[in-house]
User: Fold this.
Amino acid sequence: MLAEMQRSFRRAVLTGELAEAAAFLADGPLPPERCVAVHRNTVQASLTSVLAAAYPALERLLTPENFKLLARAFVAAHPPRRAHLSSYGAEMADFLAVFPHTSGYAFLPDLARLEWARNVALFATDAEILSGRSLEGVPLEHLGLLALPLHPATRLVESAFAIQRLWEAERLGRGVAAGAQSVLVTRSAEGAILQRPCSAGDAALLRACAAGAPLAEAAEAALAAEADFDLQGALADHLTRATFTVPRDL
Assistant:
């Protein structure tokens, strides 16, 4: 009986089919279907708020009213499966790719990927951050042999669209998504989410590091992608952005 009631309430919350769940309720000041509808609206509003917190740029560009419609469709297709709301919404990029009402905006899935990368970075596990001080005393000839692991909060989002410009935009306009961009997302030692576009060389460097390549090999990949890549400047920036965690060799 309990399991059947729970299933009926789940269907009511997700689909709006209220009669089956209402049959389990006794008559009171409000009709049973009205009571179930209130519960459904509360759940839908709560999950919409969770999604809006994870995807603020998406909500801004679509407008809050349109985002609510998107959120309700998303909730119906992807109800929460874990008791941690911080992990809810991970499927948004894939959902946008097939959602018919956003099919004319091919860049929205990648914007969602960027926003979810920020959410993941915010809640990622802690790890010891690689800093300039961590590398003090490492012989220069050994530096190139080090593999620099990405910090758990570090994400590289690569797109055929200008996702950083989209993330900053106040509204959708002609050409706002034109041009490919790669964006680095990290989390500072103080817990702030940091984000900036990456050059082709920097993106190649990070891809190689993520694959476990030693620094010398990663540097070669960066220079192959961008002949005038400033390796020293890029590494200095990464050390201030908490991009890497301390290698095991150190």
In short: The chain has a mean pLDDT of 88. DSSP finds twelve helices and three strands in the chain. The longest helix spans residues 32-54.
